[in-house]
Amino acid sequence: MGDDAGGRLGMVRFADLVRPRLRGIDVYAAPDARRGLRLDANESPYDLPPGVRRALADRLVGGMGLNEYPDDGCAALREAICERHRAEGVDLTPGMVVVGCGSDQLIAMACSLLLDHGDKALCPSPSFEMYGQGVLMAGGDPRWWHLDARDGYRYDVGGMADAVRAESIKLAFICSPNNPTGNSAACDDIGRLAAACPETVIVVDEAYAEFADESFIGRVNGYGNAVVLRTLSKAYGMAGLRVGYSVSGEEAADALRKAKPVYNVPSFSQAAAVEMLRDVGSVMGRVTEVRRERAALAGKVGALALGRLGLGAVVYPSQANFILVRLPGGAAAKTAAALADAGIYVRAFREGGPVGDCLRITVGDPAANDAVVKALGRIWD
Ligand code: PMP
């Protein structure tokens, strides 16, 4: 009996036990550890400011109780998040905030909380790949909303509302500013979508909002079906510590907490996030620099690409900490490979996909941006 069971089990391939709809999906292609200039993951070029590092080091040396589980409710961090937004004139309460181990985790939580088997979720394309992945993992059915390059990837929110109603969509994602195209959806339009589709949850992913002109965060409480996601991985330069948060009405936040893995945010990450949120001056200084550098980089890369590769080269206007560059004649993959040979990593996309002929370049510090422009000048010579 034991042998039999062992034998039969021995013949089963683990891959065959995976849910059929998930067997074909790829593991998310996060870049490997790489040495050189990392301009492929929209990280901040700056590590935590020295004062924050010192404060954390002192606390670590003094003992942080890392033998104990973290504060599951992230009380101090949620208070610091509210204070941070209050300083910008956005009145939030801790009850409206849920903290995740990165905003990735909040995407997964929204999907698992809201989608029953076969429920449909609207995911923009091209956009952040984790929406489709989160929907599939939860057993839902991703439906794609195609953003059109000829229209500057504009979110046609009126069209989305029609699709949401026609297809009984349960959950819709808007990425604003959109990764990888850099454009934002107008907040008035997002509000109209939320109001027109009260039975659909609208998740507005604002991972790059600090670099943008507009945010929906101050309006979210007016819509019971809207959730804004933010992260400390980008403007705050804390990608290695994995902290993101959602802001919504308190009822939606209470519901989201049901899907939260217990003790999900490490104590050290919570402490670091509180320190960073209080160091608004250095964060905003860095954001101002990225915005300035973004304009300079877009101008230089655009002029080079047009001059060397000719018409068909486009740099799309960006509200985020990266630029998307379309390169004619199959130059995208070759350029990315040549840059990698020079130790500069930028993001290329799946060939044949909606941005297969584009590169996404993270805006780095001035030296990194100079280096990428010089390398492109050599490669396109
Ligand atoms: N949303 C968008 C649009 C992103 O680009 C990213 C990271 N690349 C995330 C969410 C996830 O961020 P994190 O999990 O680091 O908070």
Outline the structure in words:
This protein is of the alpha/beta class and about 375 residues long. The protein folds into 2 domains: about 35-45 and about 280-380, Aspartate Aminotransferase, domain 1, CATH 3.90.1150.10; about 70-280, Type I PLP-dependent aspartate aminotransferase-like (Major domain) (Aspartate Aminotransferase, domain 2, 3-Layer(aba) Sandwich), CATH 3.40.640.10. It has helices at about 1-10, 15, 50-60, 75-85, 105-115, 130-135, 155-165, 185-195, 250-255, 265-280, 280-310, 330-340, 365-380; strands at about 35-40, 95-100, 120-125, 140-145, 170-175, 200-205, 225-230, 245-250, 315, 320-325, 345-350, 360. The chain has a 7-stranded mixed beta sheet, with helices on both faces. Strand 3 (about 120-125), helix 6 (about 130-135) and strand 4 form a beta-alpha-beta unit. About 45% of the residues are buried. The chain binds 4'-deoxy-4'-aminopyridoxal-5'-phosphate. 4'-deoxy-4'-aminopyridoxal-5'-phosphate (PMP) binds near residues 42, 104 and 175.
